[in-house]
Design goal:
This protein has 285 residues and is of the alpha+beta class. The chain has eight helices and 14 strands. Strands 1, 4, 5, 6, 7, 8, 9, 10, 11, 12, 13 and 14 form a twelve-stranded mixed sheet that branches.
Length: 285
């Protein structure tokens, strides 16, 4: 015990005799530890934020769009436009063993929404009832689109949170009606706020049944095919099957449109296809 006390006393005398060196040493240790903790915290925060951003899209979601493809292989000066169709969706659902679910989507941003109080602009998206099983769309009030809404082409709509704030400004929205380009739709539900910060794009979207969208608001400037769609969301059966699902979907779209099977997609695991330079636009949002 006496020896331990002597060692402790000698340590204190040494520190006191070299005060400046002791302070600088302790400061250096504290600075190093603090810097390490700061870097780890920033990295973890960035990873968590990135993960939350992808979670607002959905779990294991992949997207495929229309685009342009070379007329001749290897040429990038002569390109021809192709458009995804409902047939592509049906073939993907039927012929891709790695795909668990898929949803065709028609999206337009030129439809004006008018309530009894205000008007708003934003995307109107036509989707099947199972769309919310692929994408993250938590209902705040009311309900989501169901199969009967889609089959009977009902004029019903589920509006995003920012659309609700703009059109109704604190008033009840569910049960009210709005006009979409002069056609009356009943609001059956509202979506909770999705996303973070100033990213309001997801909250400016409203959803109507897919067949209702095809009935009233088909895509314009896409040729004469009545079955053209904007894009397809699809979901692999598991995270390990992302690459298999991508290849299967690419082969079907390439076959249906006579393309070189190198189509660009993005999945919500944050990895972009490296074999994609020729026939589809990438997700840039």
């Amino acid at each position: 015990m006496r020896l331990l006390f002597d060692i402790f006393a000698q340590t204190l005398r040494s520190l006191w005799a070299h005060k400046l060196r002791s302070v600088l040493t302790m400061f250096g240790i504290a600075w190093g530890v603090g810097s390490l903790l700061l870097l780890v915290g920033l990295g973890e925060g960035f990873r968590s934020g990135n993960r939350k951003q992808f979670d607002t899209l959905g779990e294991n979601v992949m997207f495929i769009w229309s685009g342009r493809a070379p007329v001749v292989e290897g040429s990038f000066t002569a390109l021809r436009q192709y458009y995804l169709t409902y047939r592509d969706y049906a073939d993907i659902l039927r012929e891709c063993p790695s795909v668990r679910a898929a949803a065709p989507t028609i999206s337009r941003g030129d439809i004006r929404a008018v309530s009894d109080f205000f008007q708003a602009s934003g995307q109107i998206v036509g989707v099947p009832a199972m769309f919310n099983q692929i994408r993250f769309l938590p209902v705040h009030e009311g309900r989501w689109i169901n199969d009967m809404d889609d089959a009977q082409k009902r004029p019903v709509i589920v509006i995003g949170d920012e659309v609700r704030r703009t059109l109704f400004s604190g008033r009840p929205a569910v049960g009210a009606t709005i006009l979409l380009n002069g056609i009356r739709f009943q609001i059956i539900g509202t979506i909770e706020t999705v996303g973070h910060g100033d990213n309001m794009n997801l909250n400016l979207r409203s959803f109507i049944p897919f067949n209702t969208m095809r009935e009233y608001f088909r895509l314009t400037n896409v040729g004469n095919d009545p079955d053209v769609i904007s894009f397809i969301n699809y979901q692999p059966k598991s995270r390990a099957l992302h690459e298999s699902a991508r290849q299967e979907v690419h082969r079907i779209v390439a076959r249906n449109h006579g393309l070189i099977p190198r189509i660009r997609t993005l999945s919500t695991n944050g990895t972009r296809s490296k074999l994609s330079t020729r026939s589809e636009r990438s997700l840039t949002r």
